[in-house]
Amino acid sequence: MKNVLFIVLVISLGACQQNRFSGSEKSVEEIKAEGPISNADIIRNPVSADGPMDTVNVAKMAFTEETFNFGEVKEGDIVRHTYKFTNTGNVPLIISNASSTCGCTVPTWPKEPIEPGAGGEISVEFNTTNKHREQKKPIIVTANTYPARTTVHLEGFVHPEEETN
């Protein structure tokens, strides 16, 4: 009896999973008209447990530069840079997060969907206070892309403040 109930449960869950992703795709305008945008409304899952990977129907970010070298600065300076990108995928791009490995590097990113073929910008501020010598700061962008994370870098040299006695 337990085996029969287990099989029925597994079949039911499988049917729910198949129906969950069926239906027509929505445009950005349709999603916006429905109210607040949820990543679940627009993110296409390129990997499924029972099928091959679908890397065609996802958003794709193409940055004009993946590494920006800010050169040499003095400790305490604020370095600012804007990374420009284009959505080269087939569906609207939704960036859910952008972060770095420490609080000294703060990115800001577009919150609205970016249509295929359209561009956007991620602005970054790096506070060099208490940072010395060679610096390489990653900016990790999480979006409905495959793979889900894309990393760009900010790098350069920070000269320590002169010690006073």
From TrEMBL:
Gene3D superfamilies assigned: Immunoglobulins (2.60.40.10)
PROSITE patterns to which the protein is assigned, alphabetical: PROKAR_LIPOPROTEIN
Pfam family, one: DUF1573
Annotated PANTHER family: LIPOPROTEIN-RELATED (PTHR37833), SIGNAL PEPTIDE PROTEIN (PTHR37833:SF1)
Name assigned to this protein: DUF1573 domain-containing protein
Species name: Flavilitoribacter nigricans (strain ATCC 23147 / DSM 23189 / NBRC 102662 / NCIMB 1420 / SS-2) (Lewinella nigricans)
